[in-house]
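Q: How would the structure tokens look for this protein?
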Amino acid sequence: MATADRRRTVTDKVEEAERVCEDLRDALKAAGVTLPSLGLDAVSCAGSAPFALIDLGRCNVATARALASVLRLPDQGAAR
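A: Here is the predicted structure in token form.
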């Protein structure tokens, strides 16, 4: 793979991860949950073959409880 193609692939992966991270942040906010450390894992985004992992980070007990509560809610008719 040419260097320019590889660079574009790396950039695409990181940009996609950034979009998904923002989407997750928005969805959590709509559910009343804020993960203060939510963001991209910088180490996983580095190198020639990044994984572009999303780091959910650390949160306090109340936030973890709120997240667990939201995850237990029955599906409200969303299409899958």
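The first strand starts at residue 39 and ends at 40.

The beta strands are 39-40, 54-55.

Upvote if useful.
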